[in-house]
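Lab notebook: predicted structure, single chain.

Context: the supervisor wants predicted structures on file for every construct in the current expression panel, including those that have not yet been purified. This is the next one on the list. No modifications to the sequence; it matches the entry in the shared construct table.
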Amino acid sequence: MTHHLDTSPGALPWQRLLLVGAPLATLRCAQACTELGLAWRRHAGDTETVLAEARARTCDALHPGEGSAERQWRLASACREAGVAFIGPREALIAAMCDPAAIHQLMREAGLPLDEAAASAPRLHLPVLADRQGRALALIEHERTTEGGGVAPSERLTPEQRAYLGQLAVQGARAVGLVGLATLSFTLEGNRLGFAAMQPGLTGFEGLAEVVTGLDLAIEQLRLVAGERLRRPRIGPMGHGPGRPGQARLSRLSAGQGISGGPGIRLDLPGGVTRETAEARLLVWGRDAEEARRRERRALSEWREQNQR
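Prediction complete. Output recorded below exactly as produced.
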Protein backbone atom coordinates (compact mmCIF):
# COMPACT_ATOMS: atom_id res chain seq x y z
CA MET A 1 0.00 0.00 0.00
CA THR A 2 1.26 3.48 -0.88
CA HIS A 3 0.75 6.20 1.73
CA HIS A 4 0.24 9.78 0.62
CA LEU A 5 -0.92 13.10 1.99
CA ASP A 6 -1.64 15.96 -0.39
CA THR A 7 0.34 19.13 0.20
CA SER A 8 1.68 22.05 -1.81
CA PRO A 9 3.99 20.81 -4.58
CA GLY A 10 7.71 21.51 -4.68
CA ALA A 11 8.36 21.64 -0.92
CA LEU A 12 10.96 18.85 -1.22
CA PRO A 13 12.66 17.51 -4.36
CA TRP A 14 11.18 14.00 -4.06
CA GLN A 15 7.64 12.73 -4.42
CA ARG A 16 7.83 9.02 -3.59
CA LEU A 17 10.22 7.36 -1.13
CA LEU A 18 11.08 3.74 -0.49
CA LEU A 19 11.77 3.12 3.20
CA VAL A 20 14.11 0.21 3.87
CA GLY A 21 13.74 -1.95 6.95
CA ALA A 22 11.38 -3.57 9.40
CA PRO A 23 8.23 -1.76 10.61
CA LEU A 24 9.78 -0.32 13.79
CA ALA A 25 13.02 0.67 12.03
CA THR A 26 11.07 2.67 9.43
CA LEU A 27 8.32 4.01 11.70
CA ARG A 28 9.78 7.45 12.35
CA CYS A 29 10.78 8.12 8.74
CA ALA A 30 7.31 6.96 7.62
CA GLN A 31 5.70 9.42 10.03
CA ALA A 32 7.99 12.19 8.80
CA CYS A 33 7.14 11.46 5.15
CA THR A 34 3.42 11.57 5.90
CA GLU A 35 3.73 14.88 7.74
CA LEU A 36 5.71 16.35 4.84
CA GLY A 37 3.25 15.12 2.23
CA LEU A 38 5.55 12.54 0.66
CA ALA A 39 4.25 9.22 -0.68
CA TRP A 40 6.12 6.23 0.72
CA ARG A 41 6.36 2.47 0.71
CA ARG A 42 8.19 0.14 3.06
CA HIS A 43 10.39 -2.73 1.89
CA ALA A 44 12.82 -5.12 3.57
CA GLY A 45 15.29 -7.18 1.59
CA ASP A 46 18.80 -7.26 0.18
CA THR A 47 20.24 -4.37 -1.79
CA GLU A 48 19.34 -5.82 -5.19
CA THR A 49 15.69 -6.45 -4.33
CA VAL A 50 15.39 -3.06 -2.63
CA LEU A 51 16.52 -1.23 -5.76
CA ALA A 52 14.29 -3.40 -7.94
CA GLU A 53 11.34 -2.44 -5.74
CA ALA A 54 12.29 1.24 -5.94
CA ARG A 55 12.33 1.10 -9.74
CA ALA A 56 9.09 -0.88 -9.91
CA ARG A 57 7.32 1.62 -7.68
CA THR A 58 8.86 4.63 -9.47
CA CYS A 59 10.40 5.88 -6.22
CA ASP A 60 12.74 8.81 -6.72
CA ALA A 61 14.44 8.52 -3.31
CA LEU A 62 15.39 5.81 -0.84
CA HIS A 63 15.56 6.14 2.95
CA PRO A 64 17.70 3.49 4.71
CA GLY A 65 15.68 3.53 7.94
CA GLU A 66 17.92 2.65 10.87
CA GLY A 67 20.38 0.55 8.87
CA SER A 68 23.97 0.04 9.98
CA ALA A 69 26.73 2.10 8.39
CA GLU A 70 27.71 -0.89 6.22
CA ARG A 71 24.12 -1.39 5.06
CA GLN A 72 23.74 2.30 4.28
CA TRP A 73 27.01 2.34 2.33
CA ARG A 74 25.79 -0.50 0.11
CA LEU A 75 22.44 1.20 -0.42
CA ALA A 76 24.03 4.58 -1.16
CA SER A 77 26.33 3.02 -3.75
CA ALA A 78 23.45 1.18 -5.40
CA CYS A 79 21.33 4.34 -5.43
CA ARG A 80 24.10 6.28 -7.15
CA GLU A 81 24.36 3.65 -9.87
CA ALA A 82 20.56 3.51 -10.28
CA GLY A 83 20.02 7.28 -10.31
CA VAL A 84 17.89 7.21 -7.15
CA ALA A 85 18.40 9.86 -4.45
CA PHE A 86 19.74 8.51 -1.14
CA ILE A 87 18.54 10.08 2.11
CA GLY A 88 21.74 10.22 4.12
CA PRO A 89 25.28 11.57 4.17
CA ARG A 90 27.37 11.42 1.01
CA GLU A 91 28.61 7.97 0.03
CA ALA A 92 32.31 8.66 0.68
CA LEU A 93 31.60 9.81 4.22
CA ILE A 94 29.50 6.73 4.98
CA ALA A 95 32.35 4.60 3.63
CA ALA A 96 34.72 6.30 6.09
CA MET A 97 32.30 5.61 8.95
CA CYS A 98 32.56 1.91 8.07
CA ASP A 99 36.36 2.01 8.46
CA PRO A 100 37.49 2.86 12.02
CA ALA A 101 40.97 3.85 10.86
CA ALA A 102 39.59 6.16 8.17
CA ILE A 103 37.05 7.97 10.35
CA HIS A 104 39.58 8.33 13.18
CA GLN A 105 42.06 9.87 10.77
CA LEU A 106 39.45 12.36 9.55
CA MET A 107 38.59 13.34 13.11
CA ARG A 108 42.25 13.60 14.06
CA GLU A 109 42.74 16.01 11.15
CA ALA A 110 39.68 17.93 12.40
CA GLY A 111 41.41 18.40 15.76
CA LEU A 112 39.26 16.07 17.84
CA PRO A 113 40.91 14.22 20.71
CA LEU A 114 41.28 10.47 20.30
CA ASP A 115 41.66 8.27 23.33
CA GLU A 116 42.76 4.67 23.67
CA ALA A 117 40.11 4.10 26.29
CA ALA A 118 39.47 0.82 28.05
CA ALA A 119 36.70 -1.35 26.64
CA SER A 120 34.72 -0.73 29.83
CA ALA A 121 34.85 3.09 29.45
CA PRO A 122 31.39 4.67 29.12
CA ARG A 123 30.31 5.79 25.66
CA LEU A 124 28.35 8.96 25.03
CA HIS A 125 26.36 9.27 21.80
CA LEU A 126 25.49 12.70 20.44
CA PRO A 127 23.21 13.28 17.41
CA VAL A 128 24.23 16.16 15.16
CA LEU A 129 22.26 17.95 12.44
CA ALA A 130 24.07 19.82 9.65
CA ASP A 131 23.11 21.73 6.50
CA ARG A 132 24.81 22.37 3.17
CA GLN A 133 25.97 25.81 4.29
CA GLY A 134 28.26 24.29 6.94
CA ARG A 135 26.06 25.01 9.95
CA ALA A 136 25.83 22.20 12.50
CA LEU A 137 23.94 21.65 15.74
CA ALA A 138 24.72 19.11 18.47
CA LEU A 139 21.61 18.11 20.40
CA ILE A 140 21.70 16.15 23.67
CA GLU A 141 23.92 13.18 24.43
CA HIS A 142 22.68 9.80 25.63
CA GLU A 143 24.09 6.64 27.10
CA ARG A 144 22.87 3.19 26.07
CA THR A 145 21.96 0.45 28.52
CA THR A 146 22.84 -3.21 28.31
CA GLU A 147 19.14 -3.96 27.65
CA GLY A 148 19.15 -1.87 24.47
CA GLY A 149 17.61 1.21 26.05
CA GLY A 150 19.01 4.65 26.66
CA VAL A 151 19.11 7.64 29.01
CA ALA A 152 19.56 11.30 28.10
CA PRO A 153 21.35 13.35 29.13
CA SER A 154 24.23 11.41 30.66
CA GLU A 155 24.44 11.81 34.41
CA ARG A 156 28.24 11.62 34.20
CA LEU A 157 28.88 15.05 32.64
CA THR A 158 29.24 18.46 34.21
CA PRO A 159 27.66 21.37 32.32
CA GLU A 160 31.14 22.38 31.18
CA GLN A 161 31.90 18.89 29.87
CA ARG A 162 28.53 18.80 28.08
CA ALA A 163 29.30 22.09 26.35
CA TYR A 164 32.75 20.83 25.35
CA LEU A 165 31.30 17.58 24.02
CA GLY A 166 28.87 19.55 21.85
CA GLN A 167 31.70 21.72 20.53
CA LEU A 168 33.71 18.63 19.58
CA ALA A 169 30.75 17.03 17.81
CA VAL A 170 30.00 20.17 15.79
CA GLN A 171 33.69 20.61 14.95
CA GLY A 172 33.92 17.03 13.69
CA ALA A 173 30.65 17.13 11.73
CA ARG A 174 31.59 20.35 9.97
CA ALA A 175 35.10 19.15 9.17
CA VAL A 176 33.88 16.02 7.36
CA GLY A 177 31.13 17.87 5.49
CA LEU A 178 28.14 16.19 7.10
CA VAL A 179 24.76 17.08 5.60
CA GLY A 180 21.70 15.69 7.35
CA LEU A 181 21.93 13.62 10.52
CA ALA A 182 24.63 11.52 12.17
CA THR A 183 25.52 10.41 15.68
CA LEU A 184 29.04 10.92 16.96
CA SER A 185 30.16 8.66 19.80
CA PHE A 186 32.80 9.51 22.39
CA THR A 187 34.47 7.62 25.21
CA LEU A 188 34.71 9.15 28.67
CA GLU A 189 37.61 7.98 30.81
CA GLY A 190 38.16 10.04 33.91
CA ASN A 191 37.79 13.59 32.64
CA ARG A 192 39.03 12.77 29.14
CA LEU A 193 36.72 12.69 26.14
CA GLY A 194 37.85 10.88 23.02
CA PHE A 195 36.20 10.36 19.64
CA ALA A 196 35.13 6.73 19.12
CA ALA A 197 32.80 6.32 16.12
CA MET A 198 30.24 7.93 13.81
CA GLN A 199 26.91 6.45 12.68
CA PRO A 200 24.94 7.86 9.72
CA GLY A 201 21.27 8.77 9.85
CA LEU A 202 18.68 7.37 12.22
CA THR A 203 19.79 4.94 14.93
CA GLY A 204 16.59 4.30 16.89
CA PHE A 205 17.62 6.53 19.81
CA GLU A 206 16.52 9.86 18.29
CA GLY A 207 13.44 9.99 20.50
CA LEU A 208 15.63 10.81 23.49
CA ALA A 209 16.81 14.03 21.86
CA GLU A 210 13.37 14.74 20.38
CA VAL A 211 11.49 14.82 23.67
CA VAL A 212 14.16 16.99 25.30
CA THR A 213 14.67 19.52 22.49
CA GLY A 214 11.31 19.51 20.68
CA LEU A 215 12.91 18.83 17.28
CA ASP A 216 11.69 15.97 15.07
CA LEU A 217 14.98 14.49 13.88
CA ALA A 218 13.37 12.37 11.15
CA ILE A 219 11.81 15.47 9.60
CA GLU A 220 14.97 17.53 10.06
CA GLN A 221 17.04 14.85 8.31
CA LEU A 222 14.77 14.98 5.26
CA ARG A 223 14.77 18.78 5.20
CA LEU A 224 18.54 19.07 5.47
CA VAL A 225 19.36 16.43 2.86
CA ALA A 226 16.94 18.30 0.55
CA GLY A 227 19.07 21.44 0.98
CA GLU A 228 17.04 23.40 3.52
CA ARG A 229 18.60 25.46 6.30
CA LEU A 230 19.33 24.20 9.80
CA ARG A 231 16.67 25.04 12.40
CA ARG A 232 17.41 25.58 16.08
CA PRO A 233 15.41 23.71 18.74
CA ARG A 234 12.74 25.41 20.75
CA ILE A 235 12.76 25.20 24.53
CA GLY A 236 10.60 22.25 25.53
CA PRO A 237 7.28 22.60 27.38
CA MET A 238 8.88 21.69 30.69
CA GLY A 239 11.77 24.11 30.37
CA HIS A 240 14.05 21.61 28.65
CA GLY A 241 16.65 22.63 26.13
CA PRO A 242 20.34 22.15 25.45
CA GLY A 243 21.23 24.24 28.50
CA ARG A 244 18.47 23.01 30.83
CA PRO A 245 17.87 19.30 30.29
CA GLY A 246 15.53 17.18 32.37
CA GLN A 247 15.82 13.46 31.73
CA ALA A 248 14.49 11.13 29.03
CA ARG A 249 14.56 7.34 29.14
CA LEU A 250 14.07 4.80 26.34
CA SER A 251 13.13 1.12 26.71
CA ARG A 252 12.73 -1.52 24.00
CA LEU A 253 9.64 -3.69 24.26
CA SER A 254 9.27 -7.01 22.47
CA ALA A 255 5.64 -7.73 21.60
CA GLY A 256 2.29 -6.92 23.04
CA GLN A 257 -0.35 -4.23 23.21
CA GLY A 258 -0.11 -0.53 23.89
CA ILE A 259 -0.45 1.53 27.04
CA SER A 260 -2.70 4.39 28.03
CA GLY A 261 -0.06 7.12 27.78
CA GLY A 262 -0.18 10.25 29.91
CA PRO A 263 2.17 13.18 30.55
CA GLY A 264 5.76 12.49 29.60
CA ILE A 265 5.07 9.13 27.93
CA ARG A 266 5.38 8.17 24.25
CA LEU A 267 5.07 4.73 22.70
CA ASP A 268 6.50 4.16 19.22
CA LEU A 269 4.51 1.14 18.02
CA PRO A 270 4.12 0.42 14.29
CA GLY A 271 0.71 -0.49 12.97
CA GLY A 272 -0.17 -3.49 10.86
CA VAL A 273 1.78 -6.01 12.95
CA THR A 274 0.51 -8.81 15.15
CA ARG A 275 0.76 -8.85 18.93
CA GLU A 276 3.25 -11.73 18.75
CA THR A 277 5.65 -9.96 16.36
CA ALA A 278 5.25 -6.35 17.44
CA GLU A 279 8.29 -4.41 18.60
CA ALA A 280 7.99 -1.05 20.26
CA ARG A 281 9.98 1.69 21.94
CA LEU A 282 8.83 3.35 25.12
CA LEU A 283 10.00 6.91 25.75
CA VAL A 284 9.42 8.68 29.05
CA TRP A 285 10.66 12.05 30.22
CA GLY A 286 10.39 14.33 33.19
CA ARG A 287 11.69 17.50 34.76
CA ASP A 288 14.33 15.44 36.56
CA ALA A 289 15.57 11.85 36.80
CA GLU A 290 13.17 10.86 39.56
CA GLU A 291 10.09 12.02 37.65
CA ALA A 292 11.29 10.20 34.52
CA ARG A 293 11.89 6.99 36.49
CA ARG A 294 8.43 7.15 38.13
CA ARG A 295 6.78 7.47 34.72
CA GLU A 296 8.90 4.65 33.33
CA ARG A 297 7.94 2.33 36.21
CA ARG A 298 4.25 3.10 35.75
CA ALA A 299 4.33 2.63 31.97
CA LEU A 300 6.31 -0.63 32.13
CA SER A 301 4.01 -1.97 34.84
CA GLU A 302 0.97 -1.18 32.69
CA TRP A 303 2.60 -2.80 29.66
CA ARG A 304 3.29 -6.00 31.62
CA GLU A 305 -0.24 -6.12 33.05
CA GLN A 306 -1.88 -5.66 29.65
CA ASN A 307 0.25 -8.34 28.03
CA GLN A 308 -0.22 -10.95 30.73
CA ARG A 309 -3.92 -11.18 29.96
